[in-house]
# Entry
Amino acid sequence: MKSIQNNCFHTLNTIQLPDRDAALLPEIDTICRFYSDLWNHNRPGSDVWNINHSCGTYVNVSHETIQLLTLSEQYRTITDGAFNILAATVKHLIQRNKNTSSHEFTQLVEKLSREHILIDGNRVLCPPWGVIDFGSIAKGYVCDRINEFLTAKGVKSAMVNLGGNISALGCRGDGSDWKIGIRDPFSDRKTSLCALKVRNRSVVTSGMYERALSFHGRPVHHIIDPSTGLPCVSDFSSVTVVSESSVDSDAYSTAITVMGRKRAEVFIQKNDIDVFCMTSDRTIFYTDNLHPIFFES
Ligand code: ADP
Ligand code: MG
# Structure
């Protein structure tokens, strides 16, 4: 296997291809850079920057952005609001002022439940109070685009890892399944709890151990619960979603974390979604299609 690495999407990405397909690696790098630039909320002139600076007026965006916003809207509906692309507004408030009062966040709840991004052809209208970022779905979407590109080129086997958002195309060179390690959320040593054997599947984990923000001096999760307007307090320590579509896995792992176990069980069953989850009291549960191989601790 040959691999290429880059730091697109503010994270470390690694793409591995069989030696005979290695000539395609630079093109995959170009795909990553294209989307990373397009959706970089810090880059003036990017689609996301333009949306976030539109002050309640329509802005023109690329068709890829329309596609991702359309998907976001579908995820919001199907998850009954647990997934909300405007939840980034809360993150933005926390980052701007670490001592913002809780009241300000609860005021957002009403807006998050009522107002949404409007799409009209290639134009979008973001509410004036809103901020978006595609952190919860961009990597999944780009994994799918890379797999599409590779499949069209006749590639039969690949491992795409965009910041831990994993997409395994085909099987390994020797014909065996890919094995994807699932991190133990209770180990600070980044050890794997088990491995999932997959072919043509994307495996995406949202972990409560990823505490990316500081709020009133406490580290808090970067996943936001739109129903409280606050960083999510979930009874899940980690949620892994396995599906054919990486963007589905990405969006659902975020949404299921927000839902918490009781609500998630209904959602998973209704929508036939494969998950491997660990709750905060260390209970593990996973759907029948997954056959995890547990490691000795
Ligand atoms: P990571 O990419 O670090 O694995 P996730 O896929 O779980 O993380 O997504 C986290 C990002 O998604 C946050 O940085 C935030 O901007 C955005 N986000 C937070 N809460 C939500 C939510 N409820 N719905 C959609 N996006 C969210
Ligand atoms: Mg996600």
